[in-house]
Amino acid sequence: MKLGILASHTGTNFQAILDACQSGLLQSQLAVVISNNSKSPALQRARSAQLPTHHLSSVTHPDPADLDRAMVSTLQEYHVGLVVMAGYMKRLGPEMLSYYAGRIINIHPALLPKFGGKGMYGSRVHEAVMKSGDRETGVTIHLVDSNYDTGPIIAQTRVQVLANDSAESLAARVLKREHNFYVETLTKIVSGEISLTNCKVAE
Ligand code: GAR
Questions:
Q1: Alpha helix locations (H) across 7-122?
Q2: Matching CATH topology for 1-101 and 106-177?
Q3: What dihedral do alpha carbons 35, 39, 40, 42 form, nearest 10°?
Q4: pLDDT(22) > 80
Q5: Ligand 1 centroid – CA 122 distance (Å)
Q6: Is the pTM of this model over 0.70?
Q7: What phi, psi does 75 have (nearest 5°)?
Q8: Any residues with Cβ below 6 Å from ligand 1, and which?
Q9: Which of 67, 111, 130, 142 ranks highest by number of CB atoms within 10 Å?
Q10: Residue 108 a catalytic site member
């Protein structure tokens, strides 16, 4: 299965997936990396690995409908079968959601439906977890729909919140778990052990 990566910033999840593909742990081919941020470290990581990269954003395509179409046609050009969002912070357009329906996944650094939604990304998620007093948080991998963090859940793993945690220490521990969990879950999707058609919306 050919994977297309969407990433906006650092790209450490993308790097974990790339490493797993290169080592053979994940039996997939990374076909293309798309970023809305031309200066993202994620794009630099992809170039270092000699992967095809595309910067597609409101800068390259001011009309959202054009951008939506360009994303679909770029992914088609590389025969992408599964779209993997790895720290991609933009909502997707209707063409993307229709053409790749049920084949776009995202990772979120909390146990959705808690601590998700518009504006809930990066340190804000972990600050909110700390403030809530919850003793556990985690990682969610879910199918993508037209809203932020609301699509059917594919897999979750739990991470303990420790008594002496700060938002930063918690963020670091969750991110480390994300890397293994994304690769593990992708491996199960690619092998057919996880079916993307049986996922449920969390309540
Ligand atoms: C990750 O923690 C990912 O879960 C989060 O952005 C970070 C990207 O890190 N995504 C979201 O919050 C989506 N709502 P990375 O660029 O180093 O992979």
A1: 12-23, 41-48, 64-77, 94-99
A2: yes
A3: 80
A4: yes
A5: 6
A6: yes
A7: -65, -40
A8: 7, 9-13, 86-87, 107-109, 121, 149, 175, 178
A9: 142
A10: yes
